[in-house]
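In practice, a research group might receive sequence data for several interacting partners and want a quick structural hypothesis before committing to experiments. The following worked case mirrors that situation: the sequences arrive first, and a predicted assembly follows.
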Amino acid sequence: MTELKTDYLIVGCGAMGMAFADTLLVETKADMVIVDRHAKPGGHWNVAYPFVRLHQPSSFFGVASRELSRFEKDKVGLNKGLYDLASGSEVSSYFDDVMQQTLMPSGRVRYFPMSDYKGDGIFTSLTGGQETKVHFKKLVDATRLTVDVPAEHTPAFSIAQGVNFMPLNDLPMLKSPPQGYVVIGSGKTGMDACLWLLQTGVNPDAIRWIMPRDSWMLPREFAQNSEEFFSETFGNQAKQLEALSAAKDINDMYDRLEAAGCVVRFDETIRPTMFHAATISQPELEALRGIKQIIRKGRVSALEVDKIILDDGVLETSPDIVHVDCSASLSRTMPQMRPKPVFEANVITPQTIRSFMPVFSGSMIAYVEAHYSDDEQKNLLCSVVPLPNSAEDFVPMTLAAMMNQFNWSQDKPLREWIRNNRLDGFTKLTSGVTPNDKEKMDILMRMRDTAPKAVGNLMKLAEQIPSPT
Ligand SMILES: Cc1cc2nc3c(=O)[nH]c(=O)nc-3n(C[C@H](O)[C@H](O)[C@H](O)COP(=O)(O)OP(=O)(O)OC[C@H]3O[C@@H](n4cnc5c(N)ncnc54)[C@H](O)[C@@H]3O)c2cc1C
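A structural hypothesis for the assembly, expressed as tokens:
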């Protein structure tokens, strides 16, 4: 067995592992070994569907040391007028560049693709079969949020022989139009499949969309981090804090957030029960609303040649209808996850420490690892912000994120580092506001004055959430 020595053994070369490694490289002199099952860096982006794009502007995705955005607004399409969303192939080639141009040339990073980590510092090559033992000072488990994707997962329902079934990855390989489509899953992947079908000319009436749960979504119009969008983006954050301060219960919270334009839903007559932080533009939402055959009969339990069995009913189908699998979701594994601190003895487990921002989180965890020595203090700065699944999860998620933000604001060097990190996206804009810019100052004052009230009220709302049985 080959033996290696390193400071940090990083398991997982997805966005989280890379954002961590990139910042650790800049902030320390440490040596690293990175191991991943995939052939190339970038994790699930290796197997994403061909028409995938980021859901957020590219300007705050990736690693801290390398730009991803072209800083161009889309001129056509459903993201028109908003900043560029990198395509899947752009994201993949970006992560490859990070590895080839930044991490490996440093001489401090050794990368082992096609390698399965078995535990105890041992990994096996998936091509040659040989085992390698790594002696490390710290293990970084960057696999905690491993994304479950349609191309790789096993659906949680049975599929009879003869059913025309495919992950959304295979849609572009269709050679002739089927009689219709059944899209299974109402998360962001399901939305992407529906939008792609509509954009390629499918009549909305030819799509039946199985929507086990409706979802609250975030308008992408308010996630634009440039000067030009200052009033929209930060005005929206001020409105969000005002809604959170005043809400009497969770339904009232969503009503207020919706009235303020901070969240949207597919059908305004149905109260969503899911929140996965999907981000959507208004034109995308309008396009999806053109699909009228929405099947709200729970989850699929079996796909048969002539019928689809759901929790609450049966749907007719046929072999001429394409069934599109969009049912992969982290929420299937999430409930089984035991809470885990980021720093625990010689194991670091990168997780989200700011809502919707896995890569910023990976980068900041590396910064904290480099500059603080006490695990208690490190975990205080890097308290885990739980991933949302149900609608009410918005409350603990936002509360944890706001507490972290407060703790960070008390630490001057950290505050400064955050401001200069491209993955933060927003702080640079607020810190550049001068007192004579009245409109912007008014927005910032509203945010500053409402934040403590919002935290206080979120604590009350959190008490209304029944604890899991
Ligand atoms: C379609 C889609 C679009 C998204 N868009 C955005 C977006 O716009 N913005 C955003 O912030 N987030 C987005 N996300 C969410 C997600 O957090 C990011 O995509 C991010 O890339 C996930 O990175 P990760 O490293 O946590 O997970 P992964 O990409 O899943 O990486 C984990 C890696 O660990 C490896 N691994 C696991 N176990 C082992 C083992 N035993 N041995 C070796 N290797 C192992 C896997 O091979 C994998 O490469 C999106 C997700 C999806 C599915």
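Before designing any experiment, note the following. The domain at 149-214+268-328 is CATH 3.50.50.60 (FAD/NAD(P)-binding domain). The chain has two domains: 2-146+334-392, 149-214+268-328.
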